[in-house]
Amino acid sequence: MGVFFDYQNVHGWARRCFLDNAADPADGHIHPLAAAQLLVRRRKFAGALERACVYRGRPNPSKQEGAARANDRQASEWGRSPLIQLTRRNLAYPRGWPGIPPAEKGIDVAIAVDMLRMAIADEIDVAILFSSDNDLLPALEAVRDHTDCHVEVAAWTGSNRLRFDGTQTPYCHYLGQSDFESVRDHTDYAAR
After folding, report:
1. Helical H runs in 43-164?
2. β-strands 171-175, 2-6: how paired?
3. Once rounded to an integer, what is the mean pLDDT over residues 78-104?
4. Measured distance CA(107)–CA(90) in Å, rounded
5. Mean pLDDT value of segment 172-190
6. By the 8 A CB rule, do 9 and 131 touch?
7. What is the third-level CATH fold of 2-183?
8. Start and end of every NYN domain (predicted)?
9. CA–CA distance from 81 to each of 31, 51, 88, 150, 164 (Å)?
10. For an engineered disulfide with 97, which of 66, 93, 156, 164 has Cβ 3.0 to 4.6 Å away?
């Protein structure tokens, strides 16, 4: 079983759902391995976590030295587990930066490619996608339609939930405030 995290989407929705507007911008992070293990335990059908795949942007150190350092520290922490597979792609900085924030580029494609590749190669029998980004629906549909891999999604209670048009599928693991608190990462990676 593989759990796929659209990390910035997961982090952003956690902030919107469970934190107030005055919360520090760095707050709302989670431990992906703990969240993946929670999802596996919650499943109706038994299974083993094969990998937790985390996808996120990485700030450019020459533009955001502190943010890049914190991102690298967090990545190093996650990398301690052999179950974590981390994919980071450099953020894209628009001409109006710093007035216009940088954006992730290629994250959705990386998730889609990996999920489909792993399902086709029979590396996973279940794929759980933790994201509220509708752009990832075609990847879920491709895995559902062209492999034997079962697909499920996860979302924070109060966030958007991915579903196939006109249905209540795939199954959604809703995670609430207490779940967020149980997997929350309070580490200040910028201060270390």
Report:
1. 65-78, 107-120, 137-146
2. unpaired
3. 97
4. 10
5. 96
6. yes
7. Rossmann fold (3.40.50)
8. 2-156
9. 11, 10, 16, 25, 33
10. 93
Q: How far apart are CA 168 and CA 39, in angstroms?
A: 19
Q: Give the model's pLDDT for residue 132.
A: 97
Helices 137-146 & 107-120, crossing angle to 10 degrees? 10
Q: What are phi and psi of 35, to 5 degrees?
A: -65, -40
Model confidence at 192, pLDDT cuts 50, 70, 90, reads: low
Chain position carrying tokens 């391995």 = 33
Dihedrals phi, psi of 22, to nearest 5 degrees: -85, -5
Task: Tell me the pLDDT of the chain averaged across its residues.
Answer: 96
Strands, DSSP E only, in the chain? 2-6, 51-58, 84-90, 126-130, 150-156, 171-175
Which range, of 4-8, 103-107, 136-140, 188-192, averages the lowest pLDDT?
188-192
Region of 122 please: left (phi>0), alpha (psi -120 to 50) or beta: left
Asked if residue 90 lies in contact with residue 103, where contact means CB atoms within 8 angstroms, the answer is: no
When pLDDT is averaged across residues 105-129 and rounded to a whole number, the result is 98
Find the largest Cα–Cα distance for the chain. Answer: 49
Would you state the pLDDT for residue 25?
80
